[in-house]
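Issue 218. Parser rejects a valid record. Input:
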Amino acid sequence: MSAARYKRVLLKLSGEALMGEDQYGINRQMIDRIVAEVGQVAALGVEIGVVIGGGNIFRGVAPGAAGMDRATADYMGMLATIMNALALQDAMRHAGINARVQSALSIEQVCETYIRGKAIRHLEEGRIVIFAGGTGNPFFTTDTAAALRASEIGAEVVMKATKVDGVYTADPKLHPDAKRYQRLTFDEALGRDLRVMDATAFALCRDQKMPIIVFSIYKAGAMRRVVTGEDEGTYVYAA
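Output the parser choked on:
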């Protein structure tokens, strides 16, 4: 088995990744697959932080949230990320993986409140840390939370897990001849309007010279191939 290129990484998971083929909610088979992928990387000695979205749960209540105050809706989304984080932690426990949930919103009855030093200690002791609650503030996405937490914990790379195995010249579903970028600079991604992450998250990664790797969480072994430096996904970096 190849050695890992990175010592510490931040995995960004969308809530939608947990749905599998379902319309909303958590698909147990899909969450078990994700846990297996994470377990392969943890077995290489890589320290892993995870930021997870809440779209799979919020999608189910979205019709009722129409016209709702934006800040209120965002707080509801943060609560959805905590539900996902607890589900992911439980699935990891069943797989024999030691994990902790830390939330930017204080809910001491169900998980730890985010404390940077404590999170780093968990990572150093081999635990996976699942960061929930976004940034704890409305108007910021979980992409931004991922960029922020990656910078805070000293991660070497943000691994953005998507349904597509990298960044393409065009939508590969609509354009079969679209080509996958193997490497891109931040400036090239901006110039080509490729929208790797939302603008705030992308700017933070660029300013911190934090590389982003976009890969598919649906491809078996893709996460392991990313951390061992194989040709998987798209590597976005500061020139």
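Fixed in the parser; the record now loads. The mean pLDDT is 92.
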